[in-house]
TrEMBL record:
PANTHER family: TYPE-4 URACIL-DNA GLYCOSYLASE (PTHR33693:SF9), TYPE-5 URACIL-DNA GLYCOSYLASE (PTHR33693). GO terms for molecular function: 4 iron, 4 sulfur cluster binding; deaminated base DNA N-glycosylase activity; metal ion binding. This is Type-4 uracil-DNA glycosylase. NCBIfam families: UDG_fam4 (TIGR00758), UDG_fam_dom (TIGR03914). Keywords: 4Fe-4S, DNA damage, DNA repair, Hydrolase, Iron, Iron-sulfur, Metal-binding. Residues 1-21 are annotated as: Disordered. InterPro entries: UDG_Type-4/5, Ura-DNA_glyco_family4, Uracil-DNA_glycosylase-like, Uracil-DNA_glycosylase-like_sf. It comes from Quadrisphaera granulorum.
Length: 219
């Protein structure tokens, strides 16, 4: 008996929904709810686009929205976002210097009773959503792009990037807007998952990384 291969639904990617004529982030945000670039739009409550200064010197890119972000439609408002905000303040980065977004704009989760458990986006989800990220970074044009965690790092710098190896120092790459500085660090949710006896050290390391980012703005 032979088994027919299971065909996965086609994921066309977001390109056809990204308005190339958009001249600001607000225009992108207004267009994003119509995106059907992958299947994640259907179970999610809503698209979660970005927040912060649309002309910021620093763009922070995370993985995807979480449960609270999905419900409220704003990135980094859950526990990880609160930790990130505290770390930014301690590092000397003012809120008006920062733009925050995610590599994937819809919450991927596994239902478990009444709870929705975070599920890491697949490479196909990251690829499908990348046109949004590329266009928003082109419009914001930050001096430094901070990649929070492995998903964001691989989305923009490729699969060879490793947090343990590459975090903590500037990485220069050519982009359509010239040479950009990228900076890899851990995602704040990883700090929250760190065992309690090592969590203070993990948080301090994140703050130290963000202090390096702040110092890059003065050079």
């Amino acid at each position: 008996m032979t088994t027919e291969p299971v065909e996965r639904p086609e994921r066309p990617g977001a390109q056809q929904w990204v308005p190339e004529s958009a001249d600001d982030v607000d225009a992108l945000r207004a267009a994003a709810p119509a995106c059907r670039g992958c299947e994640l739009w259907e179970p999610a409550t809503q698209v979660v686009f970005s927040a912060g200064n649309p002309h910021a010197a620093v763009a922070l890119v995370g993985e995807q929205p979480g449960d609270q972000e999905d419900r409220r439609g704003i990135p980094f408002v859950g526990p990880a976002g609160q930790l990130l905000q505290r770390a930014l303040e301690e590092a000397g980065l003012a809120r008006d210097q920062v733009y925050v977004t995610n590599a994937v704009k819809h919450f991927r989760f596994t239902p478990r009773g009444t709870r929705r458990i975070h599920a890491t986006p697949e490479a196909a989800h990251i690829t499908a959503c990348k046109p949004w990220l590329a266009q928003e970074l082109r419009l914001v044009d930050p001096r430094v792009v901070v990649l929070l965690g492995a998903t964001a790092a691989k989305a923009l710098l490729g699969p060879a990037i490793r947090i343990g190896k590459d975090r903590g120092h500037p990485i220069e790459r050519e982009t359509t807007r010239g040479t950009k500085t990228f900076f890899v660090t851990t995602h704040p949710s990883a700090v929250l998952r760190t065992p309690e006896d090592a969590r203070d050290a993990a948080y301090a390391a994140l703050v130290d990384d963000l202090r390096v980012v702040a110092s890059l703005l003065s050079t």
